[in-house]
Amino acid sequence: MNIPINIKLPTTWNELSPKQLGEVAYILEYFRAQEKTRQQDFRFYVRFYFQLVKQLLRSEKWYKVYIAIRQIPPMNYKKHVEFLLHGVSRTSFPKKLKAGKHTMLPPADKLKNISIEEFSFADALFYRWQELGNDEYLQLLCATLYRPKGGNEYDPREPFNKVMVEKRFDCFNKVPYKKQLAIGYTYLGCRNHIVSLYPHIFPKPYEPKEEEEKKPRPKPKYVPFGRLINFKVKFDPSKIEATEKINVHKFLSNYENELIELKKQKK
Q1: How far from chain centre, in Å, is Cα 113?
Q2: C-beta separation of 88 from 32 below 8 A
Q3: Last residue of a domain, which of 21, 52, 84?
Q4: Of residues 145, 47, 202, 255, the one with CA closest to residue 39
Q5: How far apart are CA 49 and CA 31, in angstroms?
Q6: Which of 158, 200, 215, 238 could serve as 259's disulfide partner, Cβ 3.0–4.6 Å?
Q7: pTM to 2 decimals?
Q8: Do 131 and 64 belong to one domain?
Q9: Rounded to an integer, what distance in angstroms lies between the CA atom of residue 267 and that of residue 254?
Q10: Segment (H or E) for 103
Q11: Per-block average pLDDT, block size 10, for the chain (267 residues)?
Q12: Residue 59: what pLDDT?
């Protein structure tokens, strides 16, 4: 007999607590690291869904979790975690954290207060972390985005400096790995948000129609944003520093509008 209980599971990425976010990211990274044959094993992915459901329940009291786990049929696990399986949309960063002796502050939600220079640097680190699976790049990404107090009302963090990122790298050794994953996944969610805002800068990959022969296509090559900045200033060194300080959204918005105008002129 089922016991009626009142529980509310998160239904969006931004509803996850920082603790839940780190645990969910850890489970997803573990799944991603497995070979395709194991990922497709029925028993393996049922356990995978079960672990995600457990994390969604972790904000509830222990007895509610115990009852819910016993009453949710395994066939319904996927329904409850579906939103976690189709892209990361987290845009709210975990709040300040301790790294060694320092208190580190996060960027604004949706990366509203970072420069194109910081975004370019962070994005290159993120790409290398995802591509190579080397967690040192994740740690560097955390050291880039989270900085000590020393800014202004617009951005209370210390101004971005590549040299200081490397000096602070060791401080993040003491930050738990799951907290670092939470930061990395929030960056990914913000990046996905930015991609959706500027579709001409970030066009969707071409998908062949059903009647077309589906030949394997080479993986798109990553183009660092530093190269885009150089292109925009026509490789004029005197303009690079000023351009790098522009807010990322202002920079991309202007560039998006330029591409739209160019497209109209070609018609």
Answers
A1: 16
A2: no
A3: 84
A4: 47
A5: 10
A6: 200
A7: 0.87
A8: no
A9: 21
A10: strand 102-104
A11: 63 95 96 84 86 81 58 77 94 92 94 95 94 95 96 93 91 94 97 93 66 56 72 77 90 91 82
A12: 66
